[in-house]
From TrEMBL, chains A, B:
Cellular component annotations (GO), alphabetically ordered: chromatin; nucleus
Keyword terms: DNA-binding, Nucleus, Transcription, Transcription regulation
Region named Disordered: 188-213
Protein's organism: Anseranas semipalmata (Magpie goose)
Protein name: T-box transcription factor TBX20
Compartments reported by the entry: Nucleus
GO process terms (BP): cell fate specification; heart development; positive regulation of DNA-templated transcription
A GO MF term: RNA polymerase II cis-regulatory region sequence-specific DNA binding
Composition bias type Polar residues, residue spans: 201-213
DNA sequence: TACTTTTCACCTAGGTGCGAAGAT
DNA sequence: ATCTTCGCACCTAGGTGAAAAGTA
């Protein structure tokens, strides 16, 4: 299924004349498996992680971008799809349910016509990580507040809104949940790649939605079958 | 609205390692305006053409293709949209209703990194024309057979099928209409560009559907508002 | 018990011809 | 009289959570 809410990034400092590939991948945060403690509304460690799954890259479908486009438009990853099916044939990103993940955004500057996507030797690249987007993958929501919050926010879930509007009190609870799980996270943080773009390029996550500062309560996404 | 039936082309003789841009445009066939003679089931000249409209190119959204892709897949133009609104802001192809048109498919070989789409000096290109795809643009169908044929063939018109299934006799009439309007058209014809690709590349229109040999009875497409 | 899978009603998003109304 | 525009019911295509059924 689609990852929701959507990760959106803006770029600055890119060369308007150059071409760029923009990618996303999602990497494990630790080597643990989690379970949800309902009475405490929090995630607890529940043992070692399951075996790692095939790593996949999501190449943004609008790639290649011109630097000019990147400076003008926001890049939206709304079509990223997640699955827990390790044999997935659709190219979706494969995750282990009940594990904690960190989405990453990569940008590759195309230097020449030797266009192979994975031949990075001749291309400069950078990786950006927004710690506030860490999440725990699930097949079903573990917290009714999150369910309601998503029903309120995702246009495709409109059919459930009448029966589950968030009350003001619930909205406060959501805020405190986010607060509780987002300690020690700076609003913007950049992890440099080994290479450098040679300029001050950076990626800034959109803050247009309450969800762009998500927590690790499956707020960002969840996993389901890929059928 | 979308052009229907869809123009689909296959390419051969391209360089698997090269990159190609594939385009469509639609050019006037003559300088005439037409009207439809219901009693004769044919188009008649009805005066001089209206003033020409801004020419637009439809760059196939999957461009750039690798030559390898072109050899494997068919290129489908199902998303081409037509309008009669000369102030159209959506980038659709602008046509005069009741005028006769010829779609053209262009392929450009990208030679280097000087990537500007319209700077063809450094790029080789070829243009392909399939005379059987000539059509007259309309805002409303002029012939009930064509209406039925399209209802039968376009999945989005399924809701009208019960009331207008084509009878066997009507199917024969369609065939004779097509026959009547397709005299002197070879099944495949190629107009070379000024430049040459330096190989035996060619484009072949798909013959997967009865409609790939269309006539000039608004069978291929029609024009409507761009709202 | 604690997840996971499947199915389904209900949405978004947008492509159809129809028919009434509008325009010239 | 002849075309064009607009609103609409009816589709395709596919993204939702609920709930029932499955798994271990």
């Amino acid at each position: 299924r689609r990852m929701f809410p959507t990760i959106r990034v803006s770029f600055s400092g890119v060369d308007p004349e150059a071409k760029y590939i923009v990618l996303m991948d999602i990497v494990p945060v630790d080597n643990k498996r989690y379970r949800y403690a309902y009475h405490r509304s929090s995630w607890l460690v529940a043992g070692k992680a399951d075996p790692p799954l095939p790593a996949r890259l999501y190449v943004h479908p609008d790639s290649p971008f011109t630097g000019e486009q990147l400076l003008k438009q926001m890049v939206s990853f709304e079509k990223v799809k997640l699955t827990n099916n390790e044999l997935d044939q659709h190219g979706h990103i494969i995750l282990n349910s009940m594990h904690k993940y960190q989405p990453r955004v990569h940008i590759i500057k195309k230097k020449d016509h030797t266009a192979s996507l994975l031949n990075l030797k001749s291309e400069e690249f950078r990786t950006f990580v927004f710690p506030e987007t860490v999440f725990t993958a699930v097949t079903a929501y573990q917290n009714q507040l999150i369910t309601k919050l998503k029903i309120d926010s995702n246009p495709f879930a409109k059919g459930f809104r009448d029966s589950s509007r968030l009350t003001d009190i619930e909205r406060e609870s959501v805020e405190s949940l986010i607060q509780k799980h987002s300690y020690a996270r700076s609003p913007i943080r950049t992890y440099g790649g080994e290479d450098d773009l040679g300029d001050d390029s950076q990626a800034t996550q959109s803050r247009g939605s309450a969800f762009t500062t998500s927590d690790n309560l499956s707020l960002s996404s969840w996993v389901s079958s890929s059928t």
